[in-house]
Amino acid sequence: MKKIEANTITQTTQPLISVIIPTHNNADTIRTAIESILRQTYSHIEVIVVDDNSTDNTRQVVTDMQKEDSRLQYYLLPSDDAERIDPILKRNTNAGYAARNFGFTKARGELITFQDGDDASILNRLEIQYSLLTEHNATHITTECSPFSEALVGTISTQNIVGTILGPEDIWKLSQKAKGLIAKISPHLNSTIHFHHKRLRLLNKLFFGNLAPYPGAGNSPMFKREVIEKVLFRKLADRVWPSFMGRGADRDFNFQVAETFKNSYYFPISLYLWRK
Question: The whole model's pTM is what?
């Protein structure tokens, strides 16, 4: 990795990439997250921040940054998610799903990706992801993440791909292994049964094929715009590939894309900094 100061490549002849940033009470980290996108080496972007009804000063931080860069947009999610916190699991099981869907309605780019409001990206993430997606004529790709480190913020990747690339057939097979029997037989029935019943000891094998994660960083895929014509993020009740602890919106979205388009790839190169 090496440090760079600002954008190094102007790609106005290249496709516009929409970067959607869902955020909820990320006032302390949102500036770092946004700056890591605005300073990307691939500069033909729009950055769409969707505030999922924060109660801190996230809005002020973002609107102040708008004065510095016209590519940055701020939207308040029109309605709050009343089902955000599961009363039994006592955790946020719907984190970001509605905000990301709302971001789709504002996105103008030919390509779309995400950046979480408490993480950061290596500064050539978009450039590398775009190159990989184009080179393989993929509809949807994922890459890897590393633990967040201040030392890595503001760096560019000089890594090569080391490891096994997974292609459309590989990932489609993973999607089917991870898909529960009931969802294969009747997606409608799968949606009508309460999630907590799906987790019961004698029933869970009917609803969870396996619990393997989607390969790569599921929160920062890059995909073509055509994806959102058929696939959206789903609330917990409708997820076919949730996590066993009730989240898994990213897992469900990516497996859904892989199954629908059969043109997904995974590349083992770390481009995203994730705060646990």
Answer: 0.92
Instruction: Name 226's Cβ contacts closer than 8 Å, sequence gap at least 6.
Output: 139, 261
Q: What is the DSSP letter of 151?
A: G
The CA-atom distances, in angstroms, between 202 and each of 88, 185, 187, 198, 245 are 19, 18, 20, 9, 17
Domain count, the chain: 1
At 173-225, the pLDDT tens digits run 999 999 999 999 998 999 999 898 999 998 999 999 999 999 999 999 999 99
Question: Torsions phi, psi of 37, nearest 5?
Answer: -95, -45
Residue 208 belongs to some domain of the structure = yes
Cβ–Cβ under 8 Å, residues 5 and 33 = no
Q: What is the CA radius of gyration of the chain?
A: 18
Among candidate residues 135, 133, 92, the one with its CA nearest the CA of residue 111? 133
88 lies in which domain range? 9-276
CATH of the domain at 196: 3.90.550.10
Q: Assign 118 to helix, strand or coil.
A: coil
Classify 60 as helix, strand or coil.
helix
